[in-house]
């Protein structure tokens, strides 16, 4: 395989200008990552017409055309969070192109949201079908006027890949929306239990008090989240987001608890005892909150990997412990798979790595699915009356059709297995670099988690900037983490 993979586009960029110090010989940097052997299969490219490598036209990014476009946009739209200006007409596969013609290998993929490549020909063909065109120009208010084939669309894509044990879905617009309505479902479920079941109607006191935002109609329940977690930026879900102050400042919040998320030491195999103790500590504190917090906890919401809070991982044992806590204390478990879902971790859903004794109560999704919502299995999680989970759109059939097409591509090309294999390949290469440059690649994590890989860097922002200067678009997480979020069509020859 070495002949096929002489240079690493991602890791070579890190080695050449961000990992090595300025006096390192170029020859050393250029061969920083080599496969261990020459044996092994050569996998055909998913995008045969895709460029072979990045190409930089301008002396810096953004170049003059991109700067002009940004300046024009800034008059009308806030560009302060801009990563780069893109030309999507010219972007293809794993490569993103900017207005100056710079072509970068995109290992950030719109914050982990592009599953099968830019301008995927199968999806372009799908976009031109009568089914898609009709859904696009006749967008239905799904709760009131669903199209006649809505069940078929859901069964062919969204429900075809539903997590085991969860055969129902509420569709939504985005990840934040999905998490918000999942939390609403948890609160309604909790009160329904206390009333004695879905057949028991609301009391006059509840109906009267709720219009004053008071109990018993507006009960003082809570959702427990975890320190470092991120579940969105819309109003309600912000009370569970704990990653960065800038997300939450000036916004009134609910009085809801946060539990500690394990802070593991790496390499994992060298710190097994300390990490087990840390996870046990976090589980004990979570249970104390469940039992003693002044607003009863209706549900726990947790990410398989804390993607915005620093790419923090925990063991399957920890998550099984969380499931046991929720079951024993009669509260719900919401697994936020907005970023980890749809194959990114080498399983279609990241929680499949945990081997849970029972499924989560709800699993939220968005990003790579291109649509959003939450899966559930228990019939009692459907509200007892209509209009309780409702808005005009309740999702978008065009995006559900797109997800169906994405699922077909994933299955045909076996992209989940591809991601597991490529993730092992990338992790091995980063381990090689971390051994050579331990001060620059710290706390490497994500082994066995597909391409959901990250490491800490003492000069993270410089790493991201210089990688872009080598033609690779990477992303950051938390204060120090460099994270890889390649598409499912990312292959060994890219890495």
From TrEMBL:
<dbReference type="InterPro" id="IPR004631">
    <property type="entry name" value="4NH2But_aminotransferase_euk"/>
</dbReference>
<dbReference type="Pfam" id="PF00202">
    <property type="entry name" value="Aminotran_3"/>
</dbReference>
<dbReference type="InterPro" id="IPR015424">
    <property type="entry name" value="PyrdxlP-dep_Trfase"/>
</dbReference>
<keyword id="KW-0032">Aminotransferase</keyword>
<comment type="similarity">
    <text>Belongs to the class-III pyridoxal-phosphate-dependent aminotransferase family.</text>
</comment>
<dbReference type="GO" id="GO:0009450">
    <property type="term" value="P:gamma-aminobutyric acid catabolic process"/>
</dbReference>
<keyword id="KW-0808">Transferase</keyword>
<dbReference type="GO" id="GO:0005739">
    <property type="term" value="C:mitochondrion"/>
</dbReference>
<protein>
    <recommendedName>
        <fullName>4-aminobutyrate aminotransferase</fullName>
        <ecNumber>2.6.1.19</ecNumber>
    </recommendedName>
</protein>
<dbReference type="GO" id="GO:0030170">
    <property type="term" value="F:pyridoxal phosphate binding"/>
</dbReference>
<dbReference type="GO" id="GO:0034386">
    <property type="term" value="F:4-aminobutyrate:2-oxoglutarate transaminase activity"/>
</dbReference>
<dbReference type="InterPro" id="IPR015422">
    <property type="entry name" value="PyrdxlP-dep_Trfase_small"/>
</dbReference>
<dbReference type="InterPro" id="IPR015421">
    <property type="entry name" value="PyrdxlP-dep_Trfase_major"/>
</dbReference>
<keyword id="KW-0663">Pyridoxal phosphate</keyword>
<dbReference type="InterPro" id="IPR049704">
    <property type="entry name" value="Aminotrans_3_PPA_site"/>
</dbReference>
<dbReference type="InterPro" id="IPR005814">
    <property type="entry name" value="Aminotrans_3"/>
</dbReference>
